[in-house]
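Justification of resources, computational component.

The compute hours requested in this renewal are based largely on the per-chain cost of generating structure records like the one below. Each record pairs the submitted sequence with a full structure-token output. That output is archived, and it is also reused by downstream analysis tasks.
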Amino acid sequence: MTKNLVSPDILFGELFCEVQLSRIFTDTKTFVDAVPLLSPENILMLYRAEKEKPDFNLEQFVRQYFDIPESATSHFVSDTSMTTKAHIERLWDVLTCPADPLVEGSSRLPLPHPYVVPGGRFREIFYWDSYFTMLGLQRSGRNGLVRGMVDNFAYLIDTYGFIPNGNRTYFLTRSQPPFFSLMVELLAEIDGADVFSEYLPQLEKEYAYWMAGGSGDTAVAEHVVTLDTGGLLNRYWDPTPTPRPEAFRVESELRTEARFLGVDPDNMYRNLRAACESGWDFSSRWMTDGQSIPYTITIDILPVDLNTLLFSFERTLAKAYRQSGQEMPTAEFTRKAEARRQLIQALFWDDQAGFYKDVHGSTLTPLPALTLAGVFPLFFQIATFEQAQRVHDLLEQEFLQSGGWVTTLKQSGQQWDWPNGWAPLQWIVYQGLLNYGFTATARKARDRWLMLNDKVFQVTGKMMEKYNVVDDVLVAGGGKYPNQDGFGWTNGVYLALLHS
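The structure output for this chain reads:
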């Protein structure tokens, strides 16, 4: 592996540990995104020589030999006299990064085309974020940018064999929810059906990444769980038993707590990383007690949203093979999608609750958490009308709040829980309800979300990563970092809902 594929914790060794644990930077993502001004070998040589001096100052050393990153919007000044829509249209250029140069020792994985970043501390492309950002770019008529971003993801697949969480070296051990097939579907709306043939090689490779080991050809079926019945379902997975470099200090401190609670720290780190692959980092849905980070068991869970996404992926592959005139794989992937649809209906539907739930991977029993992940089967039109009716009723009774849809019904202090709402899930629920004719409820929630976005923009001049949908006087919180502004997927979903 070349230096340009090595994560900063490995590349800078003891210097990395000292910087991350010293609290030089409030946010431990700052240092892993910093760009070295000399080769890593030279920086380490200088560090080892200078750290023994009595007047050595670690912060001065880091600032001398690294270019410290800023927020993507740090120099942008909002104009709250504008409409929210006009603000977003103006902000697209601010959030757009040019094609990347290769910089030795930088954690950034270079991309060949311009792309939109989320904003705030997130200065790189993110996998599932980008689909929802693209929805807004399409509405803005920025089709060339959508096309370039799809090409960037195709490049990542061709280069690394899959789409990482983001274009950073420290993300190369995990992915994010597999939305690439939906990106191709979106681009086909713009450029026509030939898109399916064009991106078929990358669709095949990305699908193979998620299904590795499913045929029994490897010892570890990383993302795949083979059922006793012979069927295949998927989980989130990261094999790395260490703290994430971008959250090093906080997660290092969890080791002692894990041991006190009787949790194996190495397994805890794998589970935390897998939760990050889910995009829901962090949420009570992954925790056995619904609130404690060390009790995260992501790799033991079959998530309903992941498996419906892969159902969609299989349908898109069937469409791509059909477009390419390949009859046998068309039939094969049509069968795969139907087999997965049947498993989703058999295992993830909880008839007693009247809702779709995550399932425990060993017992194949529904887990207790009610979350908006349970609406994905409506988004992909897997549910029967009767099931959709029951999901709608529970959504309207429990999840609909003054500012839109709340993510879960559990108030854990984690950011993917009550009272927070997130743009991508607003879109999933909106489209899912429209698919079954629940138009009035869908539009009511849409209007509440848009009004909340407008209100926060008028007060703060910002579009936020997430919102408190229960009490819009309060700022959304939870998690291990402050609420971020920008914000790619919020902007995208706002425009998509506004034009729907």
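The chain has 20 helices and 14 strands. The longest strand covers residues 224-226.
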